[in-house]
Design goal:
- A seven-stranded mixed sheet has the order 9-8-10-11-12-13-14, sandwiched between helices.
- It is globular, with a radius of gyration of 22 Å.
- The chain has 13 helices and 25 strands.
- By secondary structure, it is of the alpha/beta class.
């Protein structure tokens, strides 16, 4: 139908702006059937953000749900397909002719520049992690996956959705996260696998109504995005008899590069490199390979690595380094290995906030906040948060004579960016700390926020 009635051609980018559900599944496979490239984005994005995704990707067609359709008014599009009225595909449509190295998915990630970049993934890069996830995590035709992680994000897309379909299993899909409804799904469908972010486990275990349900069918619970608190992992084991298995990955690697072995998982640990994947810890400056216990930057290489950033060869080249004749991707995360070869995160090298598994890039938020009429200069940092792990904090300097309250600024921000990016805390300063050359000392503010010396 996309090819016949909507003029979508091989290689065209098609935006997907949908919550989890059967409509997302149908839309994604429709795009792949048309040999086009799916660009999944968060339904939390507002019009200003949507404009960037459309212009940067060159997408002329968007498949959306009714609730977000009004946000596309006035944006440059040839076709806006609202899934509520989407007709099912004609089974006589032309078969796919895509090859392994053709592009099929282009999720977006941000970075220090603040402008989200499209991560170019092929059928081959995706299939490596889809098949690898199924094998590593014992996903098969008997699996019933509780799908609560958002499909627009690589964790939910690869682990809850695509790996389950690949293995012939069943998904119990939750459109939006709700701990009591999730527990009901587990009890009703006898769910066996659950991929999540740790916040979801916290919500489930602390909800009396949820814990009134029988969740004992869960045998495999995996997560990532942020570290699982020890006390929560222990409570989960007491309730379900299941060890929480953590992993690590990036949008650039279409999810996992590291996962803990299910039979030998370590706590607050990224795990070990997955199939055909190599990872090292190196000195960020000299790129010297470091030994166990030495802190440095984690670099990775493997078949799941993106083939480039869309329209940004320079950024991709700058993200890669050669070590002993092999090309590695710089993750920007500081970590170390132990004597057994397991990887651990130790600190942030890149400016990124991890709010309940959602990645927030300070430069992107700062660019938006500078449009506030009262703000002279600002800095976005992470702040500790009991539920989300980290939350977004704005440190602002107001223009001379200008007045604005923290509440007013937070309300203003929520109207201009996805809710998870908007500052939840605001502090005012007379001046931001800067180096002699005028460079913002964001790390000093960040470390002070977490009480570091």
């Amino acid at each position: 139908h996309l090819q016949q009635a909507r003029g979508v051609r091989k290689g065209d980018r098609v935006l997907l702006d949908l919550q989890n559900g059967a409509d997302f599944v149908i839309a994604l496979f429709g795009v792949l059937r048309a040999d086009a490239v799916a660009v999944p984005i968060s339904p939390a994005n507002v019009a200003a953000e949507l404009k960037h995704y459309l212009s940067d990707s060159g997408a002329r067609v968007a498949i959306v749900e009714q609730a977000v359709a009004p946000r596309f008014a006035g944006l440059a599009l040839d076709e806006l397909i609202v899934m509520d009225a989407f007709p099912y595909a004609d089974r006589t449509a032309a078969p796919s002719t895509a090859k392994a190295d053709d592009l099929c998915l282009m999720p977006y990630t941000s970075g220090s520049t603040g402008h989200p970049k499209g991560c170019m993934h092929t059928h081959a890069t995706c299939l490596h992690n889809i098949a690898g996830a199924a094998l590593w995590k014992h996903i098969n035709e008997d699996t019933v996956a509780l799908a609560t992680a958002p499909f627009f994000h690589v964790t939910g897309l690869v682990h809850s959705f695509l790996a389950t379909i690949y293995a012939g299993g069943t998904m119990a899909i939750q459109r939006r996260w709700d701990p009591q409804a999730a527990a009901e799904l587990v009890e009703r469908h006898r769910c066996t696998h659950w991929d999540n972010v740790p916040t979801m486990v916290v919500d489930l275990l602390s909800h009396p109504g949820a814990m009134a349900h029988d969740v004992s069918s869960l045998k495999w619970i995996f997560g990532g995005g942020s570290s699982m608190p020890e006390a929560i992992a222990q409570k989960l084991f007491e309730v379900c008899g299941v060890r929480y298995i953590e992993g690590y990955g990036m949008t650039e690697t279409i999810s996992q590069t590291h996962i803990n072995p299910p039979q030998n998982a370590k706590k607050q640990c990224l795990g070990i490199p997955t199939f055909d994947t190599e990872s090292l810890v190196v000195d960020p400056e000299s790129l010297r390979v470091l030994g166990p216990g030495e802190q440095g930057e984690i670099v990775v290489r493997g078949p799941q690595l993106l083939v480039g950033y869309w329209g940004n060869d320079k950024a991709f080249a700058e993200s890669c380094v050669d070590i002993d004749g092999r090309r590695f991707f710089r993750t920007g995360d500081l970590g170390r290995t132990d004597e057994d070869g397991f990887f651990f995160i130790s600190d942030r090298l890149k400016r990124m906030i991890n709010a309940a598994g959602y990645k927030v890039w300070p430069a992107e938020v700062e660019a938006a906040m500078y449009q506030h009429p009262a703000i002279k200069e600002c800095c976005i940092i992470a702040s500790p948060d009991a539920r989300r792990g980290e939350t977004v904090k704005l440190v602002a300097v107001l223009k001379p004579g200008a007045a604005a309250s923290a509440t007013e600024i937070m309300d203003w921000a929520r109207g201009r960016m996805a809710a998870y990016k908007a500052p939840r805390k605001v502090a005012f300063m007379d001046a931001l700390p800067r180096t002699g050359s005028g460079k913002l000392m964001w790390r000093a503010l960040q470390e002070a926020e977490f009480g570091k010396k």
